[in-house]
Amino acid sequence: MVAVPRLVIAAPSSGAGKTTVAPGLMAAFAGRGLAVSPHKVGPDYIDPGYHALATGRPGRNLDAYMCGTELVAPLFAHGAAGCDLAVVEGVMGLYDGAAGEGELASTAQVAKVLKAPVVLVVDASSQSRSVAALVHGFASWDPQVRIGGVILNKVATDRHERLLREALEESGVPVLGVLRRAAAVATPSRHLGLVPVAERHTDAVEAVRAQAAQVRAGCDLEGLLALARSAPALAVEPWSAGAGAGPRRGPLWPLRYEVRRMTGVPSTPLTVVAALLVSAAVAVLSARRGGALHHVVVAAWPDLLPLPPAALAAGLLGALSYGHEFRYPVLQHALGAAPRRLGLLAAKLLVTAVLALLLGVAVIVVDLEALRLVYGGPLIPVPANWPGLCTAWAGLLVGCGWAGLLAAGVFRVTAAGVAAVLSVPVLVAPLVERVLTGAPARAATGLPARLREFVWARRPQETDHWLEGAVRVLAQPVAAALALSLAALLCAFLFPRLRRGAGG
Fold first, then answer.
1. Burial class (CB in 10 A: 0-12, 13-18, 19+), 310
2. What distance in Å separates the CA atoms of residue 307 and residue 1, rounded to the nearest whole number?
3. Three-state DSSP class for residue 466
4. Per-residue pLDDT of the chain (504 residues; tens, 9 = 90+)
5. Which H helix or E strand runs over 119?
6. What is the DSSP code (8-state) at residue 427?
7. Percent helix, strand, coil in the chain (nearest 5)?
8. What is d(CA 227, CA 147) in angstroms, rounded to the nearest whole number?
9. By the 8 A CB rule, do 400 and 318 touch?
10. DSSP per residue over 232-288, as a string?
């Protein structure tokens, strides 16, 4: 059993003042001699820096999306062990969670898991009696979420405060604080959230001090502490690093993580839609010029382009797979280890390959439909060598996806993955072509048959066609360059891990 007094600081929406109130409360209670455990809902790694300034303890994340709902309470108990009070700052609006996942990863879900009372921070700058309707709606939306009080932020005057208090008397939710507008407590923001403490340490310390002073002057600290102590004990064992990361992290955890990451970021559908539109446009224009082979038109790969749009999109999706991990460092902590883990690499390779193959099928279908819609007439006939063409198309897309993924993993930036994909036809392929066009010392005639005798001695002769197609594909300069690039990138990716293993 874990009996730690606790509060969840939430708001109807972003910008209401959670980031002012939460560090201010933490610092105010810490100034009274209490050991305060700071927590933040979600993967935000910037706000916890301000929490650490306010409490002198490391800020800890509670992220049901990455860690699983079942780990929220154990992680909370681990971080709050030995503390007199825990303050949890919410994320976005109280009921806002992962897109399309209901309440998953929302502040409300964390509050229910922790059985913690919620203090709702309301921006009252442009309302009076309507605040009662707002608070009533949030308090009654989910009966399992207990809103124990309201802190009114950005209140203008004494008269404004009086109107707000009178309105909230009818809601039954007590007012536990009233904060006036104050420039000293403001914290500058940019596209990823607040400016990190490391970039403005002196100013950040002054801002937290101002927030604490404002909270002490405007909030009922005794009432807030009594509310925190009303939280029931949690029947949970604190998380322990020695016990591992919990039941979710089985062999399939990296695959589940990568699928959810790939489908949960907007870059995936945007890239796929852009690839389909550009590919259809290129296919229509290529057919209009005439003279091109049918499969070249359908793949939207004229001579002017180093790679078809689908291959470039597959490479970008692969590059973003590792680019996200290194762009947002908090993801590395959530993974429990560096992103170079082999299990995660295998999951990323598999998910990228499947997505590339699905993209390849979608591009062919859309291009054929676009050609039929624009030019009419019968469908393009299926060529006799369709197995080899399909193999080459699939290998190209998967190879580009893997090249982007591995390059982004090696150089730790998305742009490097895209550059690696483009370098295959622009730089590597011409060098390989020079080697392949030289006179061979020995001919490889009959290689498919010899391979079949060695591997599939009892299989029918039809396997010769597939082996011959594969050999012909690998003999193409772009395919050979792509294979060499993948081999080099894979070695570069694995070498640091192997060197660490040998040194250990």
1. buried
2. 60
3. helix
4. 889 999 999 999 998 999 999 999 999 999 999 999 999 999 988 899 999 999 999 999 999 988 889 999 999 999 999 999 999 999 999 999 888 888 999 999 999 999 999 999 999 998 999 999 999 999 999 999 999 999 999 999 999 999 999 999 988 899 999 999 877 676 767 655 677 877 888 888 898 999 999 999 999 999 999 999 999 999 999 998 765 444 445 677 778 878 887 887 788 999 999 999 999 999 888 888 765 557 778 888 887 888 899 999 999 998 888 766 655 444 444 444 344 567 778 888 899 999 999 999 999 999 888 888 888 766 667 777 777 778 888 888 988 888 888 888 777 778 888 888 888 777 776 776 666 566 454 444 454 444 334 444 444 455 555 555 555 555 455 556 567 676 777 777 666 554 444 444
5. strand 118-123
6. I
7. 60, 10, 30
8. 10
9. yes
10. PPB--PPP-GGG-S-TT-STTHHHHHHHHHHHHSTHHHHHHHHHHHHHHHHHHHHHH
Question: How many whole angstroms separate alpha carbon 216 and alpha carbon 220?
Answer: 8
Nearest Cα neighbor of 198 from 334, 50, 60 is 50
CA–CA dist 100, 460 (Å, integer): 50
Q: pTM here?
A: 0.53
Structure tokens at 334: 């959530």
Burial bucket for residue 17 (CB in 10 Å: 0-12, 13-18, 19+): buried
Q: Which tokens go with 435?
A: 């080697």
CA distance linking residue 238 with residue 83, whole number of Å: 13
